[in-house]
Amino acid sequence: MKLGFVGLGAMGEAMATCLLRAGHELTVYNRTAAKADALVAAGAKRARTPAEATAGNELVFTMLFDDAAVQHASFGPDGIAEALGPDAVHVGCATVSLNQARRLRDGHAERGQHYASATVLGRPPAARAGQLFVVLAAADALRARILPALDAFGQKSFVVGDDPVQANLVKLCLNFMIFATIEQMAEVFTLGEKGGIAPATMFEVMSNSFYTAPVHRNYGKLMVEKAYDPPGGPMEIGLKDNGLFLEAGEDFRVPLPTASLLRDRFLQSYAAGEEGLDFVAIFERVRADAGLR
Amino acid sequence: MKLGFVGLGAMGEAMATCLLRAGHELTVYNRTAAKADALVAAGAKRARTPAEATAGNELVFTMLFDDAAVQHASFGPDGIAEALGPDAVHVGCATVSLNQARRLRDGHAERGQHYASATVLGRPPAARAGQLFVVLAAADALRARILPALDAFGQKSFVVGDDPVQANLVKLCLNFMIFATIEQMAEVFTLGEKGGIAPATMFEVMSNSFYTAPVHRNYGKLMVEKAYDPPGGPMEIGLKDNGLFLEAGEDFRVPLPTASLLRDRFLQSYAAGEEGLDFVAIFERVRADAGLR
Amino acid sequence: MKLGFVGLGAMGEAMATCLLRAGHELTVYNRTAAKADALVAAGAKRARTPAEATAGNELVFTMLFDDAAVQHASFGPDGIAEALGPDAVHVGCATVSLNQARRLRDGHAERGQHYASATVLGRPPAARAGQLFVVLAAADALRARILPALDAFGQKSFVVGDDPVQANLVKLCLNFMIFATIEQMAEVFTLGEKGGIAPATMFEVMSNSFYTAPVHRNYGKLMVEKAYDPPGGPMEIGLKDNGLFLEAGEDFRVPLPTASLLRDRFLQSYAAGEEGLDFVAIFERVRADAGLR
Amino acid sequence: MKLGFVGLGAMGEAMATCLLRAGHELTVYNRTAAKADALVAAGAKRARTPAEATAGNELVFTMLFDDAAVQHASFGPDGIAEALGPDAVHVGCATVSLNQARRLRDGHAERGQHYASATVLGRPPAARAGQLFVVLAAADALRARILPALDAFGQKSFVVGDDPVQANLVKLCLNFMIFATIEQMAEVFTLGEKGGIAPATMFEVMSNSFYTAPVHRNYGKLMVEKAYDPPGGPMEIGLKDNGLFLEAGEDFRVPLPTASLLRDRFLQSYAAGEEGLDFVAIFERVRADAGLR
């Protein structure tokens, strides 16, 4: 297929690499042009604007850092909307707020354009290996055009609805579950440690009995090893994504006490000067509350 | 081996059945004698007191409902302590408070007797299938005598320390993780539902991506199906075991905010008249807080 | 003094009335012009724009509903900034976000204009009686020009700093204390009620012993009488102002667990369809959690 | 009147002193006899057992540290119950658990004896000055015999019901409100401090506007002055009394999220080695969470 890709951070670059490797004809754009060099060397075409990465393509993916960046790339000058053809689809992959997801959906709809949301679960190494989980929400008629392309970077795609916003909501939920599980393990490791059970022992029991999911094994391991730095998932992402989840709760009038607790936990980490660490380092705040170290 | 078993509730009866099936010579005791009938018919010997279930055996297991019951069976009249030989071991399997675990350890130690704790993770059907996870804490010299017997009802045994109390602490932690995961999924299902994603869809994505552990799949399924009644794990157990976890936190001076939140959630369920349901029904309180139903 | 007043909601109208009564020469503006009729009848001059309410005056007060309204009246077309003289001061009285307070401070500073913040504590009847508490933050040199005017509607003015934003921060804190005290009394009334002590009895003891502040007596009375409708302080204000307090916590990296709990409580009230009631009606959610009614 | 008094800690000694000063004929008992010396020098009669402090008196007051102490003094050997005449009343003043209050009520009822509960609000200096607030729950027929004596140490007595347990419930509620108000002020002082408002400034505004109750002025002052040591109200009392409040919530099935939050806060203080300080020192944990000091 003829595809465009806008946003070549660690995740975007890995996903674009998969698309190229799968044989698609790919045009890429990144604000800092150098980040596209490896992809261009491998055969991608370089675009100088999001519009250029869009023109003539069947799908254009965006994987940008936050609401503002994706809004600008979509509807700003030389943005995607200026070049998106009537049969083409803008496929948003970033973790944005529900309000931003709505702005993307509505902004394209007003222009008679197609928009879909395909959020992804996994870190850059999984992306590079084509092992992401993908959550797609798109009008029924669009899905067949999008799903095959997703296979390049995803091990499995779930269709959750017609309204693109739904893929963003599911993604916020899945991210929250990571943070909540880390807090849960942190409380357990800390109580265990003060009661004479090393975190490694607790982890061994837990992750080989009822708590065998990647969320336990991957994040629990990072906690036991205190592998906080360099961060795989930065604290900033934790605070931001948990905040988006809370915001969604406010939208839909849903009290979310576990997320409220996590909000305070992330702020505690920031206040302790740990905002540069991986978000699993909230474990240190749970430990500090219990007088450890 | 020659074994005794005291406490034939749903879990105890299933565990004892495994021991008998594995070829051990088994003597069983239950306060309500009729609960022993099936085991006796299958070849177990019936004891009229805990002491009788102990005399002459290498190991005597207890699987009783609460602190008071296990204390009485151990040190009350005609209790285990009256008959436990110098080379025999009392192996406590119940989920009791840390203080009760200490009373068992110290009560036997004062009498020059051996005590070990082998707590178990899993519900009755898993017990019956010999598929429990077992957490053993026992003095090094005792382990070799106990571990082979545990294989009858456990798929895997973890040794977590010398002090029996440690197995109880690990067990309280593992149980807490069940409740915390249910609360977590309840918040996610509820937010999803108000945002247009059915719980079944959310569950499908979650349990086939990062959240594939038994704790997700088993309890998430019960929640999606609202399989609250009859309870597999009664609300009473939730309130009690979460309370024991909080009590352990107080012992060791560890703030446990997620467990504090769960305490209020269980009380909310009781106040709503749902104390007769499975503890996954706390989901209904999360939904009610969000105005659902 | 020659004064302008922009924003004649219940609070603004009451405050402006006091200023007029105190003998000041007053020009008033409100988007819905009819709200100015009574003041004009009593001697105020009517302005057709915020700029008109500003031109030629020594001080111009704003008392508008939210961030957007005050931003528009200040810097929009025909806004205050267009007409504010070099010796005049814009005195913001509304409860706005810290970010909005910063925008007001910086927007005027960029134009070489004076801005001060004088937030007020009290409901409309107190305003009308000149019994508000006023929290002023202003550059030292401006204070003497502002304080005398504040006496018209305030029983007492506190100066808390040079930076206008500080008055907004103090105001957010004081409002939060109202909500937190309501939650606190709600938990106590509910526990008492289930234990056989009527809320009126508990209120009698509390408000005549250690808990004698207006915050206890005024709000406690509303709770005991379930005087929820019409709302003196609408639920919307509770959710909004508590949200601004949490936002301030995020700004300054301060975990605020009591406010987090209140956020969920307000959402619970919204979800229960009680968003039209007074914010003391969160009491009903505390009662519902305990199975009352 | 002829009165007995059992338990001469700081509070009990002050209350007994008031009774003596008011002209009552007083017999006193304390486990450590020396604590009675000053009272005996001032005219009280010394008893060697609780029973001796009871025999022949119209009322016998108890003001002991905890459940166990009051149970022992009441129903242990040489306890109050052995000597309490048919027309006399045991008046319990200590802050005990509801279960202990029930044991006292029921234990005396079984013996055909009278029991009333008169819990007190205030610290030792207030007690000495006869300025306590007293919460009485007693059968109607007993009140007239008790109330006059309470005037010796109380500035005001409230009657809250017939069942003695009710006075204990009210007392637990009032104590909780102290802790919750401290937490509330701690969050506000901390946010203010990080935003450039000194706690003393915030306190000045708060305690002279809407937050003028003793609970604000007394505890807020201690916080601003960091007057933690020696403790007027020890941290131990905070953890204990908040725990009794939570226990009451569990009894009556009432979720109490603010108290849950306080439980974790007190544990945090213990874990930080601050268990020897006044309970207002939980302020330091709120500050630490925000990275202060």
Automatic annotation (TrEMBL), chains A, B, C, D:
GO terms for molecular function: NAD binding; NADP binding; oxidoreductase activity. Keywords: NAD, Oxidoreductase. Residues 2-161 form the 6-phosphogluconate dehydrogenase NADP-binding domain. Pfam families: NAD_binding_11 (PF14833), NAD_binding_2 (PF03446). Residues 167-283 form the 3-hydroxyisobutyrate dehydrogenase-like NAD-binding domain. It comes from the Bacteria. The keyword Ligase does not apply. The active site is at K171. The keyword Repressor does not apply. This is 3-hydroxyisobutyrate dehydrogenase.
